[in-house]
Amino acid sequence: MKTHALRLSVVPVALAATLLAAFLVLASPLSASAHDALVSSDPAADSQIETLPAELTLTFSAKLIDGEGATEVVVTDSAGNAVTDGPATVDGAVVTQPLVSAAPAGEYHVIWKVVSSDGHPTSDEYYFTVTTGSEVTPSEQPSAAPTSAAPSDEASATPEATATQAPDADGGSGATAWIFALSIAGILVIAVLMVWYWLRSRRGGAEPGAEPGSGPSSER
Predict the structure, then answer these.
(1) Residues in the chain, pLDDT under 50
(2) Integer Cα distance of 187 and 14 in angstroms
């Protein structure tokens, strides 16, 4: 009887341990993926644009935490010179960094740092290329008399940078999700088997045994 009672008391403990393990498996990926991710940028990573735009924008997956020193954006040209014009501003999930009006052609390097909605800082970097410089070059020889010719449309037009979608930060999360789903399924199967075994053992223990006094009667 002691062995049977001990076996029944161990089953609920094992079931509780299984449910705790399932909770830990579910909680760990949720806490690891809580940081906000960069959804898109303009100019986009690895893109080619004609001239440097007036501002650079970064769009994230959730509203960011703003504050002194919380958001920083550094943009430099191929020579390492900064082309930012003032501090970055945060509007919900969008970060806007003003840029200088005149900049050379070449590869540009963007480094950003923000504070996610969960309070954790996150940072990254990327590159884009400017094909045509927007620097103002003085004329080699001044004209003898002022001309009334209007500036050409090509010189006055400001090209618009097209925002392209940044690479999906969660591209590799599909395989991870399958692994966790299979783990949870296995844990649930074990839990169901334990409950079934526990109920079966209780039914077996509830069956009446041999009735007392069923043996040979004692001599008077």
Answers:
(1) 5-6, 8, 27-33, 151, 154-173, 210, 212-220
(2) 12
Distance CA 43, CA 83 (A): 14
Under DSSP, the state recorded for 65 is P
For residue 29, give the nearest of 187, 189, 183 by alpha carbon.
183
Helix (H, G, I), strand (E, B) or coil at 75: strand
The single-letter code of the amino acid at 147 is: T
Dihedral class, residue 18 (left if φ above 0, else alpha if ψ from -120 to 50, else beta): alpha
Contact of 45 with 75, CB cutoff 8 Å: no
Distant-in-sequence, close-in-space partners of 111: CB < 8 Å, separation ≥ 6: 72, 73, 74, 75, 123, 124, 125
Query: Beta partners for 82?
Result: 76
Return phi, psi of residue 133, to 5°: -70, 150
Contact between 92 and 121 (Cβ < 8 Å): no
Show the beta-strand stretches assigned E in 17-92: 38-42, 48-49, 55-60, 72-76, 89-91
